[in-house]
Design goal:
heterodimer; A: alpha+beta; 4 domains; six-stranded mixed β-barrel; six-stranded mixed barrel; 53% helix; 15% strand; globular; B: alpha+beta; Arc Repressor Mutant, subunit A; two-stranded parallel ribbon
Chain lengths: 885, 116
């Protein structure tokens, strides 16, 4: 008989249990009737015949029992009665049950929330067709210290044509762009991504209306087209079913809406509103800048049946060919591929894994605590257990029943935890740094539910094992003889409890050390001098786009007019504009050369920024040498440039940079513009407080016009009060312009710390909960210890021991336990914290401050927790204690 | 089938494990209900073997779970509802191998008893 068949038959019996019972009864009745009739035929009286039939059959109940056991449903019936019993027991001690459920719910809730995030970001596959066949292509260059960098469009097009292992290669411009939609009510900014025409076909996603972009859309044609997101369609166009085919105005240019993507398509970022094609000029493909400038992210779909390795080796062949073919731009330019999903989660994976580890540890502490509670209760119930054993209960049956109790308890805790986790997920999304979690994707699904059920059941078994094994090991005679007095077995039980306390103190220390390191690191970060004075500055990010961006003069005039009016506002002491706000981005980068130096003395990776006169005064960035830009450095004036201190130090050590000339090219030719350095300004942190300042050129805005600029406005008062007035000015100067964001510089600085703050806050919260649970655990075990020793203490006190001595006895015991836990925790922390290196700024993973302060703090808290039971024990009246026993 | 010698000794309990074999053998003749099976075994054994009637039903259940016999409700000739058991093809095969191993067992015991 096959296993499946057998199982099926058995299941049938399990679920048809009642019917099977009835069938058997019918069978037995018939049997007895037939036997009786036979006996009557043999000449017996009816009564005697019936009696004999019963005798011949034997015990009807025994047969029934045997039959029921034979069905293999016994365990299920036992389980049901165990669960009923467990629920009764839990109801009988509501305080303990409540404590256990809350403890577990905290642990499970934290796990649910974090796992929902891990599931959404790391585990769930990308919403594309066969997402495992998609790879991100990137370029790398050791000379520029480039790794996994943006690709140059010409290289991307060559790979697409020459690497046959790729079915197709699509690309999008790295970095979102804000465009202003006009002609539909108030001007509004939308986030667009510029993509190649095959972008959607490579991903394998389809529009919910109209068409996706086509390959031909990559190139310049007569009409511009746009594909919009479901969100933009609903929010801006009221889900107009006839929108496809209509023309809208983006940045003053007309574009036809050809398709609407479903809500599930939010790529490459959560907030993308629309996709516009690249609109390349076919002639520009030969242009050298097309191969020099790297500004695209390229995604390839690997052909069916081709391995990643083979695709990569084909790519490398092509890369080598391009290096030889275009030495000017491609020398040293390597390329590689990373599975798309891995690439997209590369920044989120580590923090999420760290948080998952933290909540797992938290759950372990919770388990230890609940285990302790159950252990104490098992000791209180040992007479009951002994009685059951004496009455013939099997030991395995007792263990099973104890485990049923603990798992039932953990499932209740898990259910409450699930609710906490659901709420925690909302909190997580609200607190997250921008762009870390896809808000719409972090939700409960079967994976999350399965995970919660798994950890809950495991927890139940984990914390139930100690009391279960313990209660199954006792011999009834021993217990009943003891008459409930504490004997050697209670000591043994206490050892279990002590082991649990040592464990949870160690884990709490580990958590707290991790959190402590992040706090220290965060402190260091906030101490960093950003190079400017953020107080009293309002920033306004905007784009002077529209028809105006066709003319540099118009853009220049627009910002001049804007700044003139802003400076005239009451309370404004200074105002200027910059293409990049510090602590957000370092802008574009290039190579450069200095006049009069050898050809190989060029510089790489210099950052660029365009600023208006007065920027450095407004931001209070010191001018170290030379002068700041003035109104005289206009469009037609001699080209000038400022350098930051790092650049001065690295390239002009021992000489005066002021007066020297530079070109933004590796090997300048007749077309190169030579600019004179007129000054050196202080370093500003360009991307974040924790990132070293990059070498940087500052160019007058008037000489290098940019449409997207940020105003910086200084006021002695509260900068945010200026916001309404500034908004009014902007719409007065150009009613068709939308502002991207108005923030104080302090907010910009704070936002740049969002990731670190998030991780620190989360870890700190988990560590705090862990410490509270551990301290409660220490208290519980010490209270139990003191109670178990009350008789001994009574005797000691009666014999003349001082109360301090008795108190000290308990405290010493507690300190010994906590000390052992701390020692174990320090060893674990020493091993574990090096995994946190990547999150730390200016703090060693074995930071002495953290490694001294955290254990000390824990020690003090834990000793305080032992103090309470110690004091109670020493206050007891010896006579009363002795009489009680 | 060689008939067992009639005996005046009280009937022996059916050896553990042999009940299954006897039930299977009995069912080779025709489908039968529980009481019928117990009667038939007693008849065949001429009263030497006394089937503990109560233990018959767990045995029937065991065989049914193994798939060696199948059961269905039918009416008897006296128009009573009874659960009839019949041998399945699988049970027929099993009877062959079980009989074989029983014979080996008996002859081994017999050999030991006669040599020592």
């Amino acid at each position: 008989m096959s296993v499946v068949q057998g199982l099926a038959r058995r299941l049938q019996l399990v679920f048809g249990g009642r019917a099977a019972d009835r069938d058997l009864d019918d069978e037995i009745r018939l049997h007895l009737e037939l036997e009786t009739e036979k006996n009557i035929r043999a000449g017996m009286s009816a009564e005697e015949a019936w009696r004999q039939a019963r005798i011949a059959f034997g015990g009807v109940d025994t047969t029934r029992e045997a039959h029921r056991d034979g069905r293999g449903t016994r365990w299920l019936e036992d389980l049901a009665s165990d669960v009923r019993f467990a629920l009764r027991v839990l109801r009988r001690s509501p305080a303990l049950t409540l404590a256990a459920v809350i403890t577990l719910a905290l642990g499970v809730g934290a796990n649910t929330a974090i796992f929902s995030a891990v599931n959404a970001v790391i585990l769930r596959p990308l919403p594309f067709s066969q997402p495992d066949r998609l790879v991100m292509l990137w370029e790398s260059n050791p000379e520029f210290h480039w790794d996994q960098q943006d690709v140059a469009p010409a290289n991307m097009l060559d790979w697409r044509e020459q690497v046959h292992a790729f079915t197709d290669v699509a690309a999008y411009v790295d970095g979102e762009e804000s465009v202003t939609l006009t002609g539909q009510g108030a001007p509004r900014l939308f986030t667009v991504v510029t993509v190649t025409g095959n972008f959607f076909s490579v991903l394998g996603v389809h529009p919910e209306m109209g068409r996706a972009l086509r390959d031909a859309d990559t190139w310049k044609t007569r009409t511009r087209v746009v594909v919009i997101s479901d969100r933009m369609w609903r929010e801006q166009f009221g889900a107009d079913p006839d929108l496809v085919g209509h023309t809208i105005t983006l940045n003053g240019k007309r574009a036809q809406v050809v398709g609407i993507m479903p809500a599930s398509v939010r790529f490459p970022s959560e907030n993308v509103d629309a996709w516009i094609p690249l609109w390349l000029d076919p002639a520009s493909r030969a242009d050298v800048s097309f191969r020099r400038a790297h500004w695209m992210r390229a995604i390839a779909r690997i052909a069916p049946g081709v391995s990643l390795e083979r695709a990569n080796s084909q790519l490398q062949t092509t890369v080598r060919r391009l290096q030889l073919q275009y030495p000017e731009t491609n020398r040293g330019m390597g390329a590689g591929m990373t599975p798309l999903h891995d690439f997209l989660v590369r920044d989120s994976r580590r923090p999420l894994e760290t948080l998952l580890a933290a909540v797992t540890l938290l759950l372990l502490i919770a388990c230890a605590n609940v285990g302790n509670l159950l252990l104490v209760r098992a000791a209180g119930r040992e007479r009951e257990t002994a009685m059951r054993l004496a009455l013939g209960a099997g030991r395995t049956r007792l263990i099973r029943q104890a485990l049923t109790e603990s798992v039932t308890l953990s499932l209740i805790g898990g259910a409450v935890g699930l609710a906490i986790g659901w709420w925690g997920t909302r909190v997580l999304i609200a607190l997250q740094p921008p762009g870390m979690l896809p808000a719409g994707d972090v939700r409960m699904d079967w994976a999350v539910l399965g995970y919660v059920v798994a950890i809950t059941t495991l927890s139940g078994i984990l914390f139930g094992i100690a009391p279960a094994v313990w209660s199954g090991r006792r011999t009834p005679a021993e217990v009943l003889k003891e008459g409930g007095r504490c004997g050697s077995d209670v000591r043994r039980m206490q050892r279990w409890g002590h082991a649990l306390v040592i464990g949870e103190v160690a884990i709490a220390l580990l958590l707290m050390t991790g959190a402590g390191l992040l706090v220290r690191s965060f402190q260091e970060l906030t101490q960093v001098n950003p190079g400017f004075d953020a107080r009293g500055v309002l920033t306004v990010q905007m784009s002077a786009s529209g028809p105006r961006d066709d003319s540099f003069d118009n853009v220049r005039m627009f910002y001049d007019e804007l700044l003139r009016r802003v400076r005239a506002l009451p309370g404004v002491t200074n105002a200027a504009a910059t293409s990049e706000l510090p602590l957000t981005s370092w802008g574009w980068t290039s190579q450069f050369s200095v006049a009069g130096r050898a050809p190989d003395q060029y510089g790489n990776e210099v950052a660029h920024r365009e600023v208006t006169p007065g920027y450095f005064r407004t931001m209070r960035v010191p001018v170290i040498r030379g002068r700041e830009f003035t109104e005289q450095d206009g469009a037609k004036a001699p080209p000038v440039v400022l350098i930051n201190q790092t650049l001065a130090r690295q390239f002009f050590a021992g000489q005066d940079p002021v007066g020297q000339r530079v070109a933004f090219d590796k090997s300048p030719d007749s077309a190169s513009v030579w600019r004179t350095i007129v000054g050196v300004v202080g370093d500003e942190r360009q991307t974040s407080l924790g990132t070293e300042t990059k070498i940087q050129f500052m160019t007058p805005f008037a000489q290098e016009v940019r449409t997207e600029m940020a105003l910086v406005i200084r006021t002695p008062g509260n900068p945010s009060t200026l916001a309404p007035a500034v908004r009014r000015i902007v719409s007065a100067v150009d009613p068709g312009l939308a502002i991207a964001s108005v923030r104080t510089m302090a907010d910009v600085r704070s936002a740049s710390l969002a990731r670190q703050r998030f991780l620190m806050t989360m870890l700190l919260v988990f560590a705090a909960v862990g410490v509270v649970l551990a301290v409660v655990g220490v208290y519980g075990v010490m209270a139990q210890y003191a109670r178990g020793r009350s008789r001994e203490m009574g005797i000691r006190l009666a014999l003349g021991a001082q109360r301090e001595q008795v108190r000290w006895m308990v405290v010493r015991r507690g300190m010994w336990l906590v000390g052992a836990g701390l020692a174990a925790g320090i060893v674990a922390a020493l091993a574990a914290t090096r995994f946190m290196q990547v999150f730390l700024f200016d703090v060693a993973p074995v930071d002495p401050v953290t490694f001294v302060a955290v254990p000390l703090l824990l020690l003090l808290t834990a000793v305080a927790a032992t103090w309470l039971p110690a004091r109670r024990a020493s206050r007891a009246d010896p006579a009363a204690t002795l009489r009680e026993e | 089938m060689p008939e067992p010698p009639a005996s005046s000794a009280p009937p022996a309990d059916v050896l553990r494990g042999t009940l299954d074999l006897l039930v299977l053998k009995t069912l080779t003749l025709e489908p039968m209900h529980g009481w019928g099976i117990s009667q038939r075994i007693q008849q065949f054994s001429r009263g030497v073997l006394d089937v503990n009637q109560g233990s018959l039903y767990p045995a029937l259940q065991r065989l049914e779970l193994k798939g060696w016999i199948a059961a269905e409700w039918r009416t008897t000739e006296n128009n009573r509802r009874a659960r009839y058991y019949r041998l399945t093809a699988q049970g027929r095969r099993a009877l062959g191998t079980e009989t074989e191993s029983w014979r080996r067992y008996v002859s081994a015991v017999e050999w030991i008893l006669s040599t020592t």
